[in-house]
Predict the 3D structure of the following.
Amino acid sequence: DLGQPENYFSRETLDRLSGKRTDKVWLEAQQRQPDTVYLLFSDLSPMICGADQTKLCRFRYQAVQDLLQKPATVLVFLGVERRKPSSPHSDQTSQEPPAWFAISSDEEAAELLKRSQEKNCCFPKTPNRDLLKLSEEEAGVVAQARSVLCWHSRYSFCPTCGSSTKLEDAGFKRSCQNAACRSLQGVHNTCYPRVDPVVIMLVIHPDGNQCLLGRKKIFPARMFSCLAGFIEPGETIEAAVRREVEEESGIKVGAVQYVSCQPWPMPSNLMIGCLAVAISTDIRVDEDEIEEARWFPREQVIDALFRGVRHVFTVPPTQTIAHQLIRHWIGMTSNL
Amino acid sequence: DLGQPENYFSRETLDRLSGKRTDKVWLEAQQRQPDTVYLLFSDLSPMICGADQTKLCRFRYQAVQDLLQKPATVLVFLGVERRKPSSPHSDQTSQEPPAWFAISSDEEAAELLKRSQEKNCCFPKTPNRDLLKLSEEEAGVVAQARSVLCWHSRYSFCPTCGSSTKLEDAGFKRSCQNAACRSLQGVHNTCYPRVDPVVIMLVIHPDGNQCLLGRKKIFPARMFSCLAGFIEPGETIEAAVRREVEEESGIKVGAVQYVSCQPWPMPSNLMIGCLAVAISTDIRVDEDEIEEARWFPREQVIDALFRGVRHVFTVPPTQTIAHQLIRHWIGMTSNL
Ligand SMILES: Nc1ncnc2c1ncn2[C@@H]1O[C@H](COP(=O)(O)O)[C@@H](O)[C@H]1O
Ligand SMILES: Nc1ncnc2c1ncn2[C@@H]1O[C@H](COP(=O)(O)O)[C@@H](O)[C@H]1O
Ligand SMILES: [Mg+2]
Ligand SMILES: [Mg+2]
Ligand SMILES: [Mg+2]
Ligand SMILES: [Mg+2]
Ligand SMILES: [Mg+2]
Ligand SMILES: [Mg+2]
Ligand SMILES: [Zn+2]
Ligand SMILES: [Zn+2]
């Protein structure tokens, strides 16, 4: 990205070709192409492989063909590989770039694993942690695939009338099967995947030399992170930052500046990262959500980020936008 | 807002006090307070009044008490008035600031209108146009109220199992009534109001002196506006800007810069406004969505914005973030 830090889960290696989602003939032809890539999901986890289990298992049509016939299978068209302008094949314009699909199957995980010819395959059990081990390229693909599959898994009934829905548009639409349903008149968000915008913010002390970090009870010992919260209906990004910071820490915020964002596919959040300047300093935490919040001086933050000095506190890993926001602040205010 | 233009629908006159949403005793006491304000909605439109029909009708408990008992009524707690630090009452700390609620009723519109003691009351029929006539303060309240009510109107069934749901948390949660439903195990977005993030962008020509505007068939004659589109699962704001611009106009975008955002309560969008710098210039519109797109030179844009010279083209009204983005670009590049 130009001028912006690239966050994990945001690399776009595929061109989504959303215009092709309604072209059934084209999609079926792509499904059968020998170089088309299929990712297999079980219980919302992608099959991964390799000694350190950090690579996505890629399947060809032959290996998944039977799954595509099963009624419980969900198939999502993810896009086609972007041609790199510098690639040696770029003048072979006759050859189309490979298409990618995600398959969610209800077949037993053990049975699905037998389909792979690679060693050490598995479906990781803790996506929040295990999906952070992929390459940037694969993480970007998983961000799209898992978010859409989570939506199918939770939204198979029409919220407007309670009827069952059918999958359309190559996995990007679900339409109510009750012909009399209001959701079929006009365009409504009930038919489309849900994305939940969340604000995540690093709050800077009025003195410019400390930042506010908090911890939830479920965090690993001594880890502190940025405050965050869901944007509510009728709210701007900036208003949500002010409200959530005040709710969770009692701190009042003045200026808010957008920094960068990150798709977070657990299940389908869009983390909108901001810097926020505090205009008060007395912390009073909301104990339902936050166990502790503190002002940390810049030197301690630098230690936690770069120096491996972990006796004071730790920050979340580099794959999180919380880490990148903290780094952004340190980068702005010092010459490391 | 500090350093940011204030967009229509974004003024926050109420403190949402989200922590009070689960406090039934407090909420019921607020409902009965003599200075508590109720807004009445019919078919997702608020009752407005006044000669030019630009004010929200405010009701007291007495006038709506019977509606609150009806099973089809939806009641949403909007918050309490923010105390202005400069207000003459600010030292009367004993007196709590008035609470606001929105009521959605299925009683006949004509019957509801009889409850008002004001003249010229109505429920406007075209929210996209009629809700733009309110004051900034009232627009901010309506943004929250209408978005939440639209969600109740479309999401009364559980999308996970199809059962009916019950309203909780003062209108900010719906829980499935099927005790065996997966949505009751853990925290899931199915229970919470939906907000759809949308990117809206002014694309600047590589020469810096023209901007790209498009028109849909449904626009008034000669009106052109910014391109816009829904953020998809697994996508950043910046990636969505590039994808939607290329889909709708064929133009490739390089740098993207966030400017400001706007809640748009038809039904519950968050419009995220950006400037985007084009790196190509040949327009090829997606005719399903866009009737025409053109590069407009800066002078023509200034005419359309400020000079009332409307023979070339018009831009959307000042209440739209599209208008504000165009103005922001002109303000950046000239000294008007
Ligand atoms: N879309 C959503 N998904 C999950 N939880 C939500 C959502 N919207 C509101 N919530 C509530 O917000 C809480 C987390 O608080 P916060 O992230 O600070 O807004 C959750 O425990 C839910 O009660
Ligand atoms: N949340 C949503 N609400 C309404 N329409 C959506 C949504 N997500 C995707 N769409 C589709 O997006 C189209 C509008 O295109 P765009 O605004 O350019 O993304 C609509 O006609 C729908 O087909
Ligand atoms: Mg939070
Ligand atoms: Mg919250
Ligand atoms: Mg919170
Ligand atoms: Mg569009
Ligand atoms: Mg579009
Ligand atoms: Mg779109
Ligand atoms: Zn339906
Ligand atoms: Zn349910």
User: Anything to note?
Assistant: Chain B touches chain A through 69 residues (CB under 8 Å). Chain B is about 25% helix and 25% strand. The first strand of chain B starts at residue 14 and ends at 15. The pocket of zinc ion (ligand 10) is lined by residues B 158, 160-161, 163, 176, 178, 181, 183 (CB under 6 Å).
